[in-house]
Amino acid sequence: MKKVLTLIICLILGATLHAQKRIVVAQDGSGDFTTLQKAVNAVPDKSDATTTIFIKKGIYKEKLMIPANKQNIHFQGEDLVGTVLTYDDYHAKKDSAGNDIGTTGSASIHVYGNGFSAENMTFENSAGPRVGQAVAVWTRGDWASFKNCRFIGNIDTLYTEGGGSHQYFKDCYIEGTGDFIFGAATAWFQNCTILCKTGGALTAASTLQSEKFGYVFKDCKIMGSPGTTAKYVLGRPWRPYAKTVFINCELGDEIKPDGWDNWANVANEATAYYAEYKNKGPGFSPTTRVKWAHQLTDDEVKEYTIANVLKGWDPEKKK
Fold it and tell me: Which domains are delineated in the chain?
């Protein structure tokens, strides 16, 4: 009898949440759940409708998973700085079998489900600068959108995993050290502020050979930590067909004059595609860039629209 009653209660709760299409998470117990994972688990499987999870202010130290069957989830933080998802795993940390958990395993949040979106909150890996790769956000799901979010970390902060997936970042703040924006996804960065902390490469795309576009940064501000003398290249190819383009961006003087790096492999110069268009600031030095990089013409830059790069997906469209 107890099992039947429990099942009925669960069905009623699930139906109520589905009807509301809005779940509230609050650590003080004033919402539907106190943890993000319980809220995600309550979202109906394979839903075509968007479920909003409103996250009240608080530091949520969770190893969070958005499974592939949890689609169209929207995280809405109450406060950009005060709503924080954080964890402190890192590449060399050991699992229960004594093996390294690896770069992917280090992520504070794994996003497999399509249609995930987040706004007005912070994603963090708090493992620190001396432990190697430590990912804040790992996302493979298609049509992933982040608006007005902060990504805090050091090496490998933002892992846009998933060749063939399309991702969108608008009005975001992203910080890190080496290769801190990396992966195979096609991703558009609009009006983002990017902080380069200690020197290295800003991006390390691993774009698939079959994809025409990789990373596109439009109207972004690239800056260094105050007082640092660290120098960066805009990108180096994690895989041979990496593609990265900066358009109308403001580049600080932490960007090296040569702009790009072949990752100690001359062969990458024939396959990677790196380009700029009408950037500005002390870090923009088109005459000193490596010879195998490109300055887009007025005609070539016309191809770089959100609709074209993201294959018709409109990340501003509300469901």
Answer: 24-309 (2.160.20.10)
